[in-house]
Amino acid sequence: MKNANGINRRDFIKKAGLLGGFAGLAGAGVSGLAAGSSKESYTGWGRTAYGKDQFFNRQPFFSDTPTYEQVGKPQRIPYIDDLFNRLGELRRLMMARPGSEPRWSFEMGVDALPEPLRSYYKIRPDALDEYRQAMEKAREQRENWPKYRADHLLAEAYSAAHASFLGGPGSFPPQPQGPPEESDFRGVDERYLELKSPIHGSQLIKQITHTFGASLVGICRLKEEWVTQGFMRGVGKTDFEVPKHWKYVIVVAIPHEWDSMYANPIYGNSYDAYSKLRFIVGKLEVFIKKLGYPARAQFPPTAYEIAMPPVAIDAGLGEQGRHGVLITPELGANSRLAAVITDMPLEPDSPIDVGIKKFCNKCKICAEECPSGAISFADSPETISRGYKRWSIHQEKCYKIWNSVATSHARGCRVCIAVCPYSRKRNWIHNIVRVADPRDPTGLFASGMLAMQKSFFAYPGGEAYLPPPDGSNQTYIDPPKWLNTDEWFIK
Ligand code: SF4
Ligand code: SF4
Q1: CA-to-CA distance for 327 and 304, rounded, in angstroms?
Q2: Nearest C-alpha to atom 2 of ligand 1 is from which residue?
Q3: Which residues pair with residue 232 across a beta bridge?
Q4: What is the average pLDDT across 323-339?
Q5: In the beta sheet, which residues pair with residue 217?
Q6: How many CB atoms lie within 10 A of CB 62?
Q7: Is 340 helix (H, G, I), strand (E, B) or coil?
Q8: Which residues lie with the beta carbon below 6 Å from any ligand 2 atom?
Q9: What is the model's pTM?
């Protein structure tokens, strides 16, 4: 039945339904737009390690056939089909070797190309012409760059920093070559723009370093006493004055992967954080050089000319614990460090005092758990090292244990990092502790928390971490499922 407007009831319901659907979609669109513009809605970075970024349920969409369409006999992929492979070949041919002419130029034509380039471009002459035009565009772009440089200085530096790992064979970042007055200035661009202020410098550097993957970033002036003596990378064994351009230190901290770290000494390793840190400070060194300042990365395991815990303390990241490791409010003792030294104008941070040293006076858990007995039980820092008080660590005893634990490649122990009460995840109870303890002048809160820690958390105890016959290959906390060999292999 049709109404006065000629629309029957069923059509009306359909249209109304559709309209309702559109209205719903529009509403969803508006709220989706708001949600989508929120930076909290980004996928990736942060939940990646736990597989939480792959959240889409693929199960309902599994298909018997892939969505690419086969229309002929499949063939292997010739390497020359890859754009960068063939352009690499062309570039090599067009580059003149010292004392000789280029082996090919566009004027020589397709027939003069060697195989397989000749066959490839014979059937695609337009592709060669596009490449010629692309090269002309690249030359134009290089000539135009001075016009754009002031507007895009940072974008260029950021991109160059990320691309810097492509810099040829060898580990990244490259080790310094020659004295720092040469090495730290190698690759430094002309200073093109002046910073608005050191505060702007610090804010920029922190923002960029976080995007490179740093969890924590702090900045301090470099004190002479934190610079090592007797050896300089790029020079060798030498006594040296602290170079004049070593003014500021940008200190970076990241954690080891948490669950494997808790399963120390067997399942943790130092290299997960080491490898990430090298990339972070290697890129930061390049970024700073592109802005026109000298820079020198300091990174694990041994590429340092400065002592890291003291500069991290100066830079406001945390305090040194009884075990000699830096403890930060966010990462606890699970804070691995690297740095970049520079004279870029920066505003230093201030050190912090959140009561960690006081807590360590009472706690002693790391000393009790240390399988080697390397950590001091003294009631307060008892040894003087180069003019500063600290708890003593017996380095050789510790190193012996590194070489004694069940896994041989990822040598190390790190039990003291795992058991430290500060190395706790960011859940509500630990967030309360983070906020309340530093504000409690009586120390009662800390005593209460310590009593709870010792009662509720089980500790295997010292030698239990060692292989038989001395111990039983215990770990502080059970390994994560994904590192448990029995989960995946038949033994
Ligand atoms: S790494 Fe192990 S052996 Fe070394 S101090 Fe820490 S707990 Fe002791
Ligand atoms: S385990 Fe206790 S004593 Fe050792 S560093 Fe951590 S808080 Fe300090």
Answers
A1: 20
A2: 413
A3: 236
A4: 95
A5: 252
A6: 6
A7: strand
A8: 321-323, 333, 359-360, 363-366, 419-422
A9: 0.86
- Per the listing, tokens 């003294």 go with 378
The verdict on whether omega for the bond into residue 469 sits within 30 degrees of 0, i.e. cis, is yes
Ligand 1 center to 293 CA (angstroms): 39
- Concatenating the DSSP letter of every residue in 436-463 gives HGGG-TTSHHHHHHHHHHHHHS----GG
What is the number of other CB atoms lying within 10 angstroms of the CB of residue 212?
19
Q: Return d(Cα 358, Cα 355) in angstroms, integer.
A: 5
- Ligand 1 pocket (Cβ < 6 Å) reads 323, 370-372, 374-375, 398, 401, 413-416
Q: What is the DSSP string of 271-321?
A: HHHHHHHHHHHHHHHHHHHHTT--EEEEBTTTB-SB-HHHHHHHTTS-EE-
The pLDDT score that the predictor gives to residue 113 is: 97
Residue nearest to atom 7 of ligand 2 (CA): 360
Which amino acid would we find at residue 306?
I
Q: Which residue has the tokens 């971490």?
A: 465
Q: DSSP states of 416-434 as a string?
A: HHHH-TT---S-HHHHHHH
Amino acid type, 71: V
For 14-122, list the strands marked E by DSSP.
none
Of the candidates 465, 437, 438, the one whose C-alpha atom is nearest the C-alpha of residue 263 is 465
Residues 354 and 446 sit within 8 Å (Cβ to Cβ): no
Ligand nearest to the CA of 370: 1
Report the C-alpha gap between 452 and 440 in whole angstroms.
Answer: 17
Average pLDDT, the chain: 88
For CA atoms 182, 185, 186, 189, give the dihedral sign.
negative
Tens digit of pLDDT for each residue in 140-182? 999 999 999 999 999 999 999 999 988 777 888 999 999 999 9
Q: Inter-axis angle of helices 271-290 and 198-211, to 10 degrees?
A: 140
| Amino acid letter for position 44 | G
Longest CA pairwise span in the chain (Å): 101
How far is the C-alpha of 72 from the C-alpha of 355, rounded, in Å?
Answer: 72
Q: What integer pLDDT is reported at residue 441 of this predicted model?
A: 85
- Nearest-atom number in ligand 2 for the CA of 321 is 5
**Domain boundaries of the chain, sorted by first residue:** 82-94+101-152, 180-342, 356-488
